[in-house]
Specification:
With 214 residues, the protein is α+β, with helices and mostly antiparallel strands. Helices cover 30% and strands 21% of the residues. The strands form two sheets. Strands 1-2-3 form a three-stranded antiparallel β-sheet. The radius of gyration is 28 Å and the shape is elongated. Bound molecules: zinc ion. The site of zinc ion has 7 residues, from strand 3.
Amino acid sequence: MSNEDSAEPEEEPVELPPYVIENARSGRSKCKTCQRKIDADVLRFGVLVDGRFGQGYMWHHLNCGAKRMLDQVEEAYAMEAWENAKVPPDPDELPTLEKLRAVAEKASVEREKKEKAKKTIPYAECAPSNRSKCKQSGEPIEKGAVRIVLGMEAHFGNQTRVTPYNVLPQYLEQALMEPDMGTEEEGLADALRENSRDIDPELLEQAIAEAGLS
Ligand SMILES: [Zn+2]
């Protein structure tokens, strides 16, 4: 019989709680969500992680944590993670979970809006200024004139990057024949109708006709 087990030192590693909510004890930590400094005394949310050198906390501003990982913030609230702080903050000073949920909801609506605002190539738009030129002809594009944005491919080793290639409708045919053109003529008119949101549909149809696509 071995009594090896009982011979083991009784010293158990200290178990760190999975979450901590506290006022930052110094201004030295950095928020892992927004990458900005967490000022001293500002509420921060710590998530226990196993790192190369043992366990430690990844810190986030409490609001940033709510935006990025609301589930975990909810868990932390359920277990009253502020009690894990060296100097526990007054629970009455903490934002309510309802408030943090609202913060998270607002952030997710913003993210969606941004996602929707991203333009998908190919699209048509009215030039916002006089400063752009038709990439195909070199002609200046007047403010308000319709330009069609195609995708030109640029190759870097194994990678292909698509860069916008603005053309006036009358030069579209020619642009489509460029060797690195990433936009195809097939389905182009429909793609333009689908992707061009900030343009009067009538102007768009005119441009499509002028480009010889319809
Ligand atoms: Zn932050």
